[in-house]
Amino acid sequence: MKSKLIAIVGPTATGKSDTAVALAARTNGEIISVDSAQVYRGLDIGSAKIKPSEMIAADGTAILHHLLDYLDPKEDYNIARFQIDAKAAIEDIQQRGKTPILCGGSGLYVHSLLNTSYQLEKEPGDAAYREELKELAAVKGLTYLYQRLQEEAPELAKKIHPNDEKRIIRALEKSRHGATKAPELNWESPYDLAIFGLYLPREILYQRIEKRIDQMLEAGLVAEVKSLLDQGVDPGSNALTALGYKEIIGYLAGRYDLEEAIRILKRDTRHFAKRQLTWFMRDPRIIWINITNMSDSDRPHKKFSILSSRKIKSKGEYL
RNA sequence: GGAGGGGUUCCCGAGUGGCCAAAGGGGGCAGACUGUAAAUCUGUUGUCGACGACUUCGAUGGUUCGAAUCCAUCUCCCUCCA
Length: 319
Hints:
Elements: E1 4-9, H1 16-27, E2 29-33, E3 65-66, H2 79-95, E4 99-103, H3 107-114, H4 127-140, H5 142-152, H6 154-158, H7 165-176, E5 192-199, H8 202-218, H9 221-230, H10 246-252, H11 258-281, E6 286-290, H12 299-309, H13 315-318
Helix pairs in contact: 1-12, 2-3, 4-5, 4-7, 5-7, 8-11, 10-11
The protein binds one RNA strand of 82 nucleotides through helix 2, helix 3, helix 7 and helix 11.
């Protein structure tokens, strides 16, 4: 018998965090953040991390959050580590008799938890070899690497575009450790699963994104980035290449003015939201909820009542 | 008032007689995605009953078998001189 698990997904700026808190309060749940930027300490404003005060539900229940703020921004991170950490958190929550609620917008990370085909432990990483391949790409050209991949692991090469350096290198890395082909995608979940997607029409979504970015600026995003830099975090680090950070860094480095940085950040965030949408729309298990006509104040409640009463519109219905 | 430069597809910007529905970039839209994923990469972007047709390169008229490209007039913008 599979154990129960709830997930709240959707593009950025749709109010996933609030919804998850409201839901957790009613389901005796704890929240696991599925977000590649919010794992870092000090990335608060730009990553739109939930504040401690917001972790208290309307009825006063304090909701526990996992996988937030547990990494130094100087550390590198990856999906394999995330999978281990998140699975441990899920198990921990379940053992205490609570309901794990996944909440986040990193599509790949969500997949790695909810699809049995993601057996990352079978595909070890090889940092040294990766560096070597990067060198090779720079010296001999990407085409050379791609051809090498085609010879070594044609099945792997088939799924990768010749321009996609990161994936070519990773595939070569896998091939060296015995992989010959990519795993099949499936929608089989290890859990008794309910995934809810928060949906907003594109136009409204984009408005909310812009508004949220303006608020981040007001809340001191520039100062946050400066402080991270002052702490010696490398501008090219994993943490600082996140949205909201790399754009402000460009401004601080004098590559353009603040106005331009904001423009770029808004644009990049729109692009990101689209990618998130593309990712989640593929997943046939997601139950989509159109939250257009819910105001900010009643959103958590309404969202919750929709989720709990199961008066849910399916993807097909609202589209 | 005089001299010069320029108005190109959503935007920027190339194109100086046919190979131009028009390079390139941006933006938009769509997609991929299994150890950097808020990353990386791809496709598409005048209209249509669509291996063809139609409309487009400030406007109008002309030259030519053929024009975004040449000529004339008009119009708007920019620079310099007065």
